[in-house]
TrEMBL record:
InterPro entries: Glc/Gal-6P_isomerase, Glucosamine6P_isomerase, NagB/RpiA_transferase-like
Function of the molecule: Catalyzes the reversible isomerization-deamination of glucosamine 6-phosphate (GlcN6P) to form fructose 6-phosphate (Fru6P) and ammonium ion.
Keyword annotations: Carbohydrate metabolism, Hydrolase
GO molecular function: glucosamine-6-phosphate deaminase activity
This protein's pathway: Amino-sugar metabolism; N-acetylneuraminate degradation; D-fructose 6-phosphate from N-acetylneuraminate: step 5/5
Name recorded for this polypeptide: Glucosamine-6-phosphate deaminase
Domain Glucosamine/galactosamine-6-phosphate isomerase: residue ranges: 18-225
């Protein structure tokens, strides 16, 4: 079931997203969070950092699991999601690095890394909150549209449209990895609560499909319709139809 908050501008978007996460951490300082990368959550992370640096919030006892990671990028590569999380959140807050988990895309054996990540998730308590963005093609994590979806963490071949969308972050489009490791749809739907962040008019159509379209692996985000507690934070552009 969806609850929707539609905001008018970027500042309000980031402040609202951060307030939701901060509220959860204040109520439960030992919360387990599923975290997302991509451009959408960056401003929300910034607001969380500000709160933490003002002493209003602590990540000391928080545990985090990231959704996904590219295959074949060293952890310190500019575009790896390890580096992203370090730069956009972890290094600025008081989180214990031993409590942050991200699939290892650079082990040389991505299938084994995915299997290992599954064992970690199996041992973890249910996530208190899963943060999500959405790809233009309806992917969540890197669960790409197709004829079927996979429940567990697995290796995916990235769609050309996803590689093209993310090419803006790389020196050239050939540098975008062809594969990634992603948490599966099952693990995502296990979270007690999901916060989906969606910004910009180019995401409006896919958001509409996710909310009102048929539940189909052709639009992985449509599976959020079966979750009892999904909060969508959208701006007026993405949520124009709401
Ligand atoms: O927020 P963006 O940059 O549009 O990215 C969309 C989605 O694609 C991913 O980068 C792939 O996992 C997600 O992290 C993100 O939610």
């Amino acid at each position: 079931m969806f609850n929707i908050i539609k905001v008018n501008h970027e500042e309000e978007f980031n402040e609202t997203g951060a307030a939701i996460i901060a509220g959860l951490l204040q109520a439960n300082p030992k919360a387990v969070l599923g975290l997302a990368t991509g451009s959408t959550p960056i401003g929300v992370y910034k607001k969380l950092i500000e709160r933490c640096q003002k002493g209003l919030l602590s990540f000391r006892q928080v545990t985090t699991y990231n959704l996904d990671e590219y295959v074949g990028l060293p952890k310190d590569h500019e575009q790896s999601y390890h580096r992203f999380m370090d730069e956009h959140l972890f290094r600025h807050v008081d989180i214990n690095p031993l409590n942050t988990f991200i699939p290892d895309g650079n082990s040389g054996d991505p299938d084994q890394s995915a299997a290992y990540y599954n064992t970690l998730l199996e041992k973890s308590p249910f996530f208190d909150l899963q943060l999500l963005g959405i790809g233009h093609n309806g992917h969540i994590g890197f669960n790409e549209p197709g004829n079927e979806l996979i429940g567990n963490t697995h290796v995916v071949t990235l769609h050309e449209s996803t590689r093209a969308a993310n090419a803006r972050f790389f020196a050239s489009s050939e540098d975008v990895p062809t594969h990634a490791i992603t948490m599966g749809i099952g693990a995502i739907l296990h979270a007690k609560q999901i916060l989906l962040l969606v910004k910009g008019k180019e995401k409006s159509e896919v958001l509409r499909r996710a909310i009102y379209g048929p539940i189909t692996p052709q639009c992985p985000a449509s599976f959020l319709q079966v979750h009892p507690r999904v909060l969508i934070l959208t701006d007026v552009e993405a949520g124009a139809f709401l």
